[in-house]
Amino acid sequence: MDESTPLMTAKFGMGQPVPRTEDPTLLRGEGRYTDDLALDGQLHAAIVRSTMAHGVLRGVDVAGALEVPGVVAVYTAKDLAWTAPMPANIAASMKNADGSAMAIPQRKALAEDRVRHVGDPIALVVAETAAAAREGAEAVMPDIDVLPVVADPEAALAEGAPAIWDEVPGNRAVTWASGDAAACEAAFATAAHVTRLRVVSNRVVVAPLEPRAAIATYDPADERFTLRLGSQGTFPMRNLLAKALGVAPEKVRVLTGQVGGSFGMKSAIYPEYVALLHAAKALGKPVRWTDTRSESFVSDHHGRAVTLDGALALDAEGNFLALKIEGVADLGAYLNPVAPLFSTINIPKNAMGVYRTPAVHARITCAYTNTTPVGPYRGAGRPDGNYLMERLVETAAAEMGIDPLELRRRNHVRPEALPYATPAGTTYDSGDFPAIFEAALAAADVDGFSTRREESEARGLLRGIGIGHYCEVTALVTAEMGGLRFEPDGSVTLLTGTLDYGQGHATAFAQVLSEKLGVPFEAVRLVQGDSDRLVAGGGTGGSKSLMASGAAIVGAVDEVIEAGKPLAAHALEAAPVDIVFENGRFAIAGTDRSIAVLELAARLREEGFAASLPDGLARSLDVTHVHDTSPSAYPNGCHVAEVEIDPETGVTKLVRYVAANDFGVVVNPLLVEGQLHGGVVQGIGQALLERVVYDEDGQLLSGSFMDYGLPRADDAPFFAVENLEFPATTNPLGVKGCGEAGCAGALPSVMNAVVDALRPRGVTHMDMPATPQRVWRALRATPARA
To answer: Which residues of 532-571 are buried (b: 16+ CB within 10 A; e: fewer)?
Structure first.
């Protein structure tokens, strides 16, 4: 052990590109997702959904469904009257600019008196087989009187718009404001130049590889519900379900196995889950349900859906003076518990970016519409804020005749200014934005771009280059568990409340524990997916997993070492003050006498040794540590994209992509690069391909992959990635989070590149997605510049 520990740490410790330990299982097809599970005596469920976007629900005729062979029950809102409204969670604390409360209408799991979007759940059919459940669902006959529809948020806010909720005047959920309006007005009054730009962050379908699925059970003996499902955290999901069921949290257990993607969408409680748990209780049998892909298009929460009007004030030299943001965000028909947070607060915080901007004021209105609810999607407002700022910077440079690279350099927050307090209420604690910027430009060979542009022009193509220089504000770290259990077989079980749905937690967390506690990497076993084994947990989201669980692991290791020193002293027959801990061993300082932490854990299981321990000493090294909180961190980077556009067809091809990043201390560069790739490709999808489209009747026109374009492998080039490490000071590992950063850099860099390619033809702005049709039309609608 003495000789192997340093070698082990060098191979599997922090900073090493260790492959994900779960990959062999997944590649062999041995993964177990919710739909792979089967319970004895299980029944199958199907959802009856509204085919109309808005209407009065006069009644639901279930007689035909009950006649279908194999159907055992049909449940409607009347059957679920005992359940509570769906929880509002974070949104309940949102306030209007005048201090009044946000308008939060109460929603039950199944539609009661009205349906408010296509896909709104009306009934749950339970049958002996999935086929019978689907047939039964088709036989249910809802009686709906059609009402006028409003599917656009700005139209929903207009005077005389159809009322989606009687208790929400003007469909206005909240008008939120922040910042110093007076300082902004003063700055704009004295500005030498003002750039104004409207950007649309298009609504997108989340479309994870694994659709939502769940299996509900109920134990009448202890009156306890259990739900197996894909989620982003079993502990927060348990608490949300308990509120909706009107029971104490300990009466609910949530189990999550492997999850085939989520990107924010599976963090929320959905009405189907409450209905399934009701059915399991009523029937005394497990009830399972798996969403179809076509249903998921109208039932899974969508992402983005915000329009922002930005104004940037500059002096004559191009120094930023102030930023104003006006916006309208679409919440859909029902409230996602956290949607108003990312549609409002996250926008100006992230729009501050890497630049000195003395004043900011934001005012954003969230509206209800007759559409599928909108929820968090990779970045949750962070990419939208960064996108607005970077498009404003690029546009201001063109309007003022200043090189866009030079304009950015003039306004960077310099490293000597850190810690830097922004007018949005954030404080950058570490980093070097100019260094990241120059590293990206060098890696992208920006100096050689003019030659590449000439080569493209010789082939009849338009070439553009775009910068996306971003700084993200991660989510705050709330209470997070770091439990350690030393098992009889020599392994160490790590329990924590984040949840892996593709990030590679098992590998990264084992690297941290291996380095900090000196236990073998391969001995670490991660447990995340059982709410019964957790005492705290915030789930995974907001680019905070390693900040949260990493800090919890460090705290747990400290407790193990503190408890282990007197135990090691007893084993080594020494005084506790003489015991030191290093490389996984407790040793008597200045001697070669030591005992490994795993050996000590094994000795504590020996009857004789345990009996010999003095009173007051721990009988185990097991700990249950909870890390209380950590501030946000500020991952940042600069992405450089190059595109080629065929002016004859409007087809845009992304041909080069470079990303230089500051993610603080990088625990596993292989995982970080993989996370970055995923985020960038999702950003490319939103920038060039993806867009949810409703017609005036609230019908989804982009309701399948036949109508909705997701990025594929040939839509992205190979990526060049560089990581410069400027450790965060806000958490014990110095990490900053990386899961959402790819989107933050991709949206502005790709769209700036598109506009740069089109600008010589007179096109100065284009909203996402830059589809071939849109590009082709823009080229023909705008005369080319001389």
So the answer is: ebbebbbbbbbbbbbbbbbbbbbbbbbbbbebbbbbbbbb
CA distance linking residue 341 with residue 574, whole number of Å:
55
Report if residue 392 sits inside a domain: no
pLDDT at residue 786 is higher than 80 = no
- Shared domain for 467 and 541, answered yes or no, is no
Banded pLDDT at 6 (limits 50, 70, 90): very low
* Cα 163 → chain centroid: 31
Q: Terminal CA-to-CA distance of the chain, rounded, Å?
A: 74
Q: What is the mean pLDDT of residues 55-70?
A: 98
**Number of domains the chain is built from:** 2
Strands 652-662 and 719-723 turn out to be parallel
pLDDT of 88: 83
The two tokens of residue 734 are 């110095």
Using CA atoms, how far apart are residues 313 and 191, in angstroms rounded to an integer?
A: 6
Q: Is residue 61 part of a domain?
A: no
Per-chain mean pLDDT for the chain: 95
My answer on whether 576 and 484 are in the same domain is yes
Is 181 domain-assigned?
Answer: no
Higher pLDDT, 784 or 456: 456
d(CA 270, CA 273): 6
* Residues of the chain above pLDDT 90, percent: 96
Which residue in 82, 147, 94 sits closest to 120, CA to CA? Answer: 147
Residue 710 structural domain: 429-475+631-781
pTM of the predicted protein model: 0.95
Nearest 10 degrees: Cα torsion 33, 34, 35, 37: 90
In this structure, the answer to whether residues 531 and 471 fall within a common structural domain is no
**Which residues, 6 or more positions from 61, have their beta carbon under 8 angstroms from its beta carbon?**
140, 141, 142, 143
Q: Is the pLDDT of residue 3 over 60?
A: no
Q: Are strands 43-49 and 287-290 parallel, antiparallel or unpaired?
A: parallel
Condensed to tens digits (0 to 9), the pLDDT of residues 508-562 reads 999 999 999 999 999 999 999 999 999 999 999 999 999 999 999 999 999 999 9
Domain boundary among 598, 627, 656: 627
Does pLDDT of 584 surpass 80? yes
How many CA atoms does the CB half-sphere of 365 hold within 13 Å? Answer: 16
Which of 606, 627, 648 is where one domain is finished? Answer: 627
Q: In this structure, are 564 and 454 located in the same domain? A: no
Q: What local confidence, expressed as pLDDT, does residue 1 receive?
A: 35
Pairing between β-strand 320-332 and β-strand 359-368 as defined by DSSP bridges:
parallel
**pLDDT digits over 734-768, tens only?**
999 999 999 999 999 999 999 999 999 999 999 99
Token pair 């594929």 in the structure block, residue = 712
Kindly state whether residues 471 and 593 are assigned to the same domain: no
Which helix H or strand E contains 754, and what residues bound it? helix 741-758
Residues 587 and 461 in one domain: no
For residue 16, what is the domain's CATH number?
3.30.365.10
